[in-house]
From TrEMBL:
<feature type="domain" description="Pseudouridine synthase RsuA/RluA-like">
    <location>
        <begin position="1"/>
        <end position="82"/>
    </location>
</feature>
<dbReference type="GO" id="GO:0160136">
    <property type="term" value="F:16S rRNA pseudouridine(516) synthase activity"/>
</dbReference>
<dbReference type="Pfam" id="PF00849">
    <property type="entry name" value="PseudoU_synth_2"/>
</dbReference>
<dbReference type="InterPro" id="IPR006145">
    <property type="entry name" value="PsdUridine_synth_RsuA/RluA"/>
</dbReference>
<keyword id="KW-0413">Isomerase</keyword>
<protein>
    <recommendedName>
        <fullName>Ribosomal small subunit pseudouridine synthase A</fullName>
        <ecNumber>5.4.99.19</ecNumber>
    </recommendedName>
</protein>
<dbReference type="GO" id="GO:0000455">
    <property type="term" value="P:enzyme-directed rRNA pseudouridine synthesis"/>
</dbReference>
<dbReference type="GO" id="GO:0005829">
    <property type="term" value="C:cytosol"/>
</dbReference>
<dbReference type="InterPro" id="IPR050343">
    <property type="entry name" value="RsuA_PseudoU_synthase"/>
</dbReference>
<comment type="function">
    <text>Responsible for synthesis of pseudouridine from uracil-516 in 16S ribosomal RNA.</text>
</comment>
<comment type="similarity">
    <text>Belongs to the pseudouridine synthase RsuA family.</text>
</comment>
<dbReference type="InterPro" id="IPR000748">
    <property type="entry name" value="PsdUridine_synth_RsuA/RluB/E/F"/>
</dbReference>
<dbReference type="InterPro" id="IPR020103">
    <property type="entry name" value="PsdUridine_synth_cat_dom_sf"/>
</dbReference>
<dbReference type="GO" id="GO:0003723">
    <property type="term" value="F:RNA binding"/>
</dbReference>
Amino acid sequence: MTDDGQWSHRITSPRHHCEKTYLVTLESPVADDTAEQFAKGVQLHNEKDLTKPAVLEVITPTQVRLTISEGRYHQVKRMFAAVGNHVVELHRERIGGITLDADLAPGEYRPLTEEEIASVV
């Protein structure tokens, strides 16, 4: 939550390429070539440009960590749909240099430090 519209725009706009990392639970096991496809960019339905390269880390066959540098509409879900899978759970772990505190309960928040605010340029 912020009242700084410019700062918010920097972290949410696809044009600013702010990295975001998600923990993703999938309906089906991730295919062996998905990480390679994501690293090259994926063609999303009804879009002319490929996604920017993304980094996929397989944790279990149905749970992965995905880092993207855009913020297109429902991008993570659409990327997995493009490779024939379905996202059943999605949790953002990091945005820019700001990592979600593991000790915060759902719905809780904390103020950002000056360093965290400055880390999102």
